[in-house]
Design a protein that fits this description.
Distance between the termini: 4 Å
Helix content: 10-25%
Number of strands: 5
Number of helices: 3
Oligomer: single chain
Largest sheet: 5 strands, mixed
Structural class: alpha+beta
Length: 132
């Protein structure tokens, strides 16, 4: 079975298209940001959900799935809007492969504000096929 996850391509795209970010990596919650001065602004990306987006086909083993990625943007207030804008411009409509539909914005929210740091989380989704 093929794995439709595109997290490596997503991380590479954000790193290439958003050079103002000091850290672009997969979110490993056991290893939080320790050095805010050198590691931020940061985009920490993770696969948040993978869900059926349709019924399985009966003739061949395929089914549409929706992959939703969470992105933590950890940054200082002064750069927040510009960095969020760059991230959105980088992702809106991006197609990581011919097998994937364009990336679409699902929503975002402030998760925490500590001093001058904002912890913003956005969700982005795309549809593709799970093939047996």
């Amino acid at each position: 079975m093929s794995d439709p996850d595109v997290i490596d391509a997503l991380i590479a795209r954000v790193a290439a298209q958003c050079p103002m970010l000091a850290t672009v990596d997969e979110a490993w919650f056991a290893e939080p940001i320790d050095h805010f001065d050198t590691q931020t602004p940061a985009a920490l990306i993770y696969l948040a959900e993978d869900a059926a987006a349709g019924e399985p086909e009966t003739i061949r083993p395929t089914q549409r799935v929706r992959l939703t990625y969470g992105i933590w943007l950890v940054t200082k207030r002064a750069g927040f809007r510009a960095e969020r804008k760059a991230l959105r411009e980088c992702l809106m409509g991006w197609e990581p492969s011919p097998e994937h539909e364009p990336m679409a914005y699902r929503g975002g929210q402030t998760a925490d504000i500590r001093g001058e740091l904002i912890w913003w989380r956005e969700f982005w989704a795309l549809d593709t096929w799970l093939r047996g």
